[in-house]
Amino acid sequence: MAQVQVEITTFGYLHDTPPADAHLVADLRRHFRDPHRDPRMRYLTAHDVEVRERVMATPGIAALVDALEAATAAYLAGPVTAPVRLAVGCAGGRHRAAVVGAELQQRVRARGIEVELVHRDLGKDVVHR
């Protein structure tokens, strides 16, 4: 099995703080619309097509994923001795962060790079706010 070169953790700020060992943390809470606000989406997750489509159609999300992919490549270009760790967070960790993390994983993996993706809070209860 190939050695993991990139570790992506998605999370929800309302559950806990970002992973302390991340090289880069992307905070999606304030700049991108939240599917949680739509009662039809609230109990869905990034595993649902409707959520993935809604998040990826949000203005700015595709550019953010491009930027995260470029940042990952920049970290990997350095004298890497350990995996590059990225953390992507939103309010609850079920929608925006999980979709962006999964999209980033696909793009980085398509470059032939071994990627591990952990959705830390995706399975936790919906945070009512």
TrEMBL record:
Q: Which domain of life is it from?
A: Bacteria
Which residue range or ranges hold the RapZ C-terminal domain?
A: 5-122
Xref: InterPro entries = RapZ-like, RapZ_C
What is the protein named? ATPase
